[in-house]
Amino acid sequence: MSVINLRHLQPGTKIGLADGSTVEVVSNPLDGIWVFARYLSSPRDTSLIGTEEMIFAQDIVEIR
Amino acid sequence: MARTARHDAIHALVDVKQGLISRELFVNEELYQQEQERLFAHCWLFVGHESQIPKPGDYFVSAMGEESVILTRDREQRIHVFLNTCRHRGMKVCRYDEGNTPVFTCPYHGWSYGTDGRLVGVPYYRECYQEQLDKAEWGLVEVPQLVNYKGTIWATWDEAAPPFAEYLGGMKVHLDTLLDCRDGREGGSEVLGGVQKWVMPCNWKFAAENFAGDAYHNISHRSVDLAGIGPSGAGRRDTVERSTAQRLGASFPDLGHGAVSFLQLDDVPYTPSYQNTPIVEEYFRHCYEERKRRLGKDARLLGLVGNVFPNTAYLARQPRSIAVWHPRGALKTEAWRWFLVDADAPPEVKDVLRHYYLRYSGPAGMTEQDDMENWNYATLASKGVIARRYPYNYQMGLGQDYGTYDSPGVLTDRIAEQNQRGFYERWAAYMDGARTDPRNGGRNDGRATRKGARPGAHRPESRGKPPDADGRSRSGG
Ligand code: FES
Ligand SMILES: [Fe+2]
User: Fold this and answer.
1) Which of B17, B91, B253, B386 could staple B422 via S-S, CB 3.0–4.6 A?
2) Which CATH number do you get for residue A11?
3) Contact residues, chain B, for A34 at CB < 8 Å
4) Which of A27, A33, A56 is facing B102, going by the closest CB pair?
5) Does residue A48 form part of some domain?
6) SS3 sequence, B101-163?
7) pLDDT, averaged across chain B
8) If you average pLDDT over residues B192-209, what whole number do you get?
9) Number of A–B residue contacts, CB under 8 Å
10) Which domains does chain B have, with CATH numbers?
11) For B220-264, what is each residue's pLDDT tens digit?
């Protein structure tokens, strides 16, 4: 698995997280550590769907 | 140290009555460390200008004493000043000079703070903190008091510090000659260009006391006067209007501020300046007349120079500028200089001013270079164990009375060292631990405030009066 450069993630990009969730980038502060994203799906907690959260770089496993 | 012992130790170094100040103030590392706690942690300090952070998310990294701070505007347009250090392990959260950001993310472990200071991102918050960390408790440290005074942002770490207006006292009228529009409207300035920053191998107080109104050292700038860097190509300023005005040295010993302004004793017509550039000439003529129309008699006060205690200096007109002398060690100062202009001045005017300001001030400015030479060599020549035995002399005008003018402060109408004595009197009060309310004259030892003194309005009441019982002339020394 190659390391994802967070600075390249544009709003609208769909990414997969370590817990199996899929989120969509809403905005990118370009600090290389966090992105703001909205949950599209979450096997862990379906109530997260539609909510926004800051996503930590090391939780991101793939670009979907 | 017991308070009296501390009092005695400080007053052995600062003898305002005799006009003697020990060189230790300028070279001693221990005193320098004490200043950080007793002075810089309690005074109101200039942090930046609102025009540097016009939009939500804008930030400017500044300093208060030795500490890095972030001046920022949050999403609700509120201005904040935060200590620039991560609450987790102390990493400097923001390492840029200025910019725009939705969050301040610490590069060490990734804690992330909103522009309102709240801790909003903690890596592995769920998995490893089990959501037990109380984020509300661990936001950025914010100053307890902050004020936006005519566009300039000031802050203090002391929640018990008097309100800024009281801290400023009678110095307000002088500072306003810097901050108000050239045509007399209130405020309205903006920062022109970037902030100049440089390091000087001298103690910060050399610069502070100089800008508190050292009108004696003009001789240092004679080569600049000869070179003729002024707006009209002669001298270093266009100052004809001063020839008919009264010099007004204003000292506020209970507050520590000092200023030199000029007071026109009558309505004086505009004297041409900026004569090499007709657009600028016309602009300043218009401003001068407008200001007179708006302010009436109050327009007669023309600002020159001053220092807001402890380390914020200004030049009110030519050039129009704020400087902060950041302490960086007993023998090291980091100077930061902001240039101001009326936000709505025409572009041609701003451009001409920018060139003139740079000729004058900053590390490449000719006048500033002269000043630095003096402070840097004075430092070198004062460090030695023998040199330290001999105090500096601040006796000019000691015990003299200069008459009454309708302006606050202890006033002098000629070159004197009253402003420097006032600065060190207040310095000693802070170092002595009496830093709180200027209404008590800055003292905590139970002694009464000087007879007749009220904050920011100490006026000589009669000529030729002998010094007070405590040995100080009420007007001159
Ligand atoms: S020091 Fe800032 S996150 Fe650890
Ligand atoms: Fe000077």
Assistant:
1) B253
2) 2.30.30.30
3) 103, 105, 110, 112, 121
4) A27
5) yes
6) CCEEECCCCCCEEECCCCEEECCCCCCCCCCCCCHHHCCCCECCEEEEECCEEEEECCCCCCC
7) 90
8) 97
9) 29
10) 46-145 (2.102.10.10), 169-476 (3.90.380.10)
11) 999 999 999 999 988 999 888 888 899 999 999 999 999 999 999
